[in-house]
């Protein structure tokens, strides 16, 4: 997330304070022509000296420049998830970093319980039987399960994100791991829904088609004062695909997914009735 703040800030400074293209600005700080474009897309993390050179080029100094440089230093720190790098594809490493930094996560799932709310046994069964995922050794699979459990710690942090989940009923009727595992998973969802930072709604079968495709909308907190240029409206849509993931941040893309999410929330049962449905499913799995 800090890398995104740096990326957005450097792009806005270049566009608002100069008439330079990204290629021209790159060459001005002794970089190749494509370097700054990658920095501004958060694909490459710039060093502190590189950012300092760009700030001088853009005429930025004083406390605002110091704040940008401080965030640049922080962006270079290793995330808690680094010990799990070997069991994550590159595209998911990026997601875990974004998830850990988000202020709000709006999630729609049509097939599975979201990873942040899975029990350990559900996660293990989901990873073991994933149709397109080669888990390799049992040790590798257990590392993947451990990573999923570790991700959930953000919900217990001092300043936890707001997690808003819309879940298709089909995700609850699919017996991942068997009846006992699904019963425990439903009970876990009931407990989670009682948390002040978690909202959970279920789209019933009787609502019809629903939406064919899971996604997450991540909103991030503003950068610290006295960061230049004022608040940054920072939001990303994450879409998991067969061959990787999509990270969408164009205004039209963000608006489309936000509209779909609100439409799904309107179709879904209210929170209390969603908990009632979970209790009913859990009870049926007990008998």
Automatic annotation (TrEMBL):
InterPro entries cross-referenced by the UniProt entry: DUF5753 (IPR043917)
DUF5753 domain location is: 94-279
Official protein name in the record: Transcriptional regulator
Gene source species:
Actinocatenispora sera
Q: Cite the source lineage.
A: Bacteria, Bacillati, Actinomycetota, Actinomycetes, Micromonosporales
């Amino acid at each position: 997330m800090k890398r995104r703040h740096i990326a957005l800030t450097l792009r806005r400074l270049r566009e608002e304070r100069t008439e330079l293209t990204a290629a021209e600005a790159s060459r001005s700080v002794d970089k190749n022509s494509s370097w700054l474009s990658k920095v501004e897309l958060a694909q490459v993390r710039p060093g502190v000296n590189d950012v300092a050179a760009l700030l001088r080029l853009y005429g930025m100094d004083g406390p605002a420049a110091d704040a940008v440089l401080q965030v640049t230093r922080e962006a270079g720190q290793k995330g808690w998830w680094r010990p799990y790098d070997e069991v994550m594809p590159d595209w998911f490493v990026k997601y875990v970093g974004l998830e850990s930094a988000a202020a709000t996560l709006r999630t729609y799932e049509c097939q599975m319980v979201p990873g942040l709310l899975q029990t350990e046994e559900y996660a293990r069964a989901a990873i073991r039987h994933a149709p397109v995922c080669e888990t390799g050794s049992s040790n590798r699979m257990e590392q993947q399960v451990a990573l999923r459990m570790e991700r959930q710690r953000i919900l217990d942090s001092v300043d936890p994100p707001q997690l808003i989940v819309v879940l298709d009923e089909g995700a609850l009727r699919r017996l991942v791991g068997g009846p006992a595992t699904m019963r425990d998973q439903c009970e876990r969802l009931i407990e989670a829904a009682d948390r002040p930072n978690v909202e959970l709604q279920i789209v019933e079968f009787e609502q019809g088609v629903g939406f064919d495709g899971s996604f997450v909308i991540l909103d991030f907190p503003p950068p610290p004062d006295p960061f230049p240029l004022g608040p940054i409206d920072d939001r990303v849509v994450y879409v998991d695909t067969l061959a990787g993931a999509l990270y969408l941040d164009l205004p039209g893309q963000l608006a489309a997914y936000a509209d779909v999410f609100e439409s799904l929330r309107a179709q879904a049962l209210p929170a209390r009735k969603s908990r009632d449905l979970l209790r009913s499913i859990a009870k049926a799995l007990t008998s």
